[in-house]
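Work Package 4 report. The design task specified in the project plan requires that, given a folded chain encoded as structure tokens, an amino acid be chosen for each position. We show below one input record used in the internal validation round.
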């Protein structure tokens, strides 16, 4: 009887840990590439609140944001929007990670291109909060993103997503056969040294390979005290502390699933013992 009890306890423990560690990456993958359409409430916030806030702020210094006059700012339009993803350095370090969907994690942010007279000018980013939405940031030069979009095929059933890593940006198109097509949306000259072109869309594998090498060089730089441009480039970092929330939620869901499976097994063993 004692031996059976010990065996049952060991089985329950094993299943709990297997459920946790298998369940977590599965949920991460599903959550990362669920429907990428911009929520209607985000679109409404963009037009009714974020756009007026952008106009009010930028009109005070139009030249500083790349506009000619305050009148030009008044006539801006909001264009394409993208869900924002970040690169997870732990996922990137895995030998099995070869595509962006292997290494990214979602945020509750969306970035939009701001146009003036059909010319891509600035960015506008909004984020979800406990009470609704807020204007997270604005400004910059969105012409690189627009150029990257023109390198990619028209959107079908798999919309584009925006992957950011500090100042570097990538527009990712997930194909029907799970093949990723990526266009670099920032003036990243470093990747060209790895044979990655800046002016055409390519499959994701060469870019992920280059980012892995950057990551290794960062580790060596930290250990050796180096200060080269390549060594100081940080992979998978962000100033957005709220971006950790999806990961926490994924872990909690995984733990819940593991505990639920354990409870079901325990009830099954109790019923079997009574018989």
């Amino acid at each position: 009887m004692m031996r059976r009890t010990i065996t049952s306890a060991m089985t329950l423990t094993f299943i709990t840990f297997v459920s946790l560690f298998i369940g977590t990456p599965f949920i991460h993958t599903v959550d990362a590439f669920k429907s990428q359409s911009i929520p209607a409430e985000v679109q409404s916030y963009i037009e009714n609140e974020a756009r007026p806030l952008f106009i009010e702020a930028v009109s005070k210094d139009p030249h500083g944001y790349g506009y000619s006059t305050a009148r030009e700012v008044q006539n801006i339009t909001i264009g394409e929007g993208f869900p924002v993803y970040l690169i997870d350095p732990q996922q990137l370090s895995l030998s099995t990670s070869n595509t962006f969907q292997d290494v990214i994690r979602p945020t509750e942010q969306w970035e939009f291109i701001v146009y003036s007279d059909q010319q891509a000018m600035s960015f506008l980013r909004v984020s979800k909060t406990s009470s609704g939405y807020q204007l997270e940031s604005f400004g910059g030069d969105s012409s690189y993103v627009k150029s990257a979009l023109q390198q990619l095929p028209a959107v079908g059933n798999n919309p584009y997503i925006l992957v950011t890593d500090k100042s570097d940006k990538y527009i990712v198109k997930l194909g029907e056969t799970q093949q990723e097509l990526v266009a670099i949306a920032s003036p990243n000259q470093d990747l060209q040294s790895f044979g990655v072109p800046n002016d055409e869309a390519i499959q994701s594998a060469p870019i992920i390979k280059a980012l892995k090498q950057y990551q290794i060089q960062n580790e060596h730089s930290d250990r050796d005290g180096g200060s080269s441009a390549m060594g100081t480039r940080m992979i998978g970092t962000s100033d957005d502390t709220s971006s950790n929330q999806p990961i926490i939620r994924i872990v909690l869901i995984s733990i819940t699933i593991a505990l639920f499976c354990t409870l079901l097994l325990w009830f099954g063993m109790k019923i079997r013992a009574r018989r």
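Residues 19-35, 220-247 have pLDDT under 50 and may be disordered. Validation will be extended to a larger panel in the next phase.
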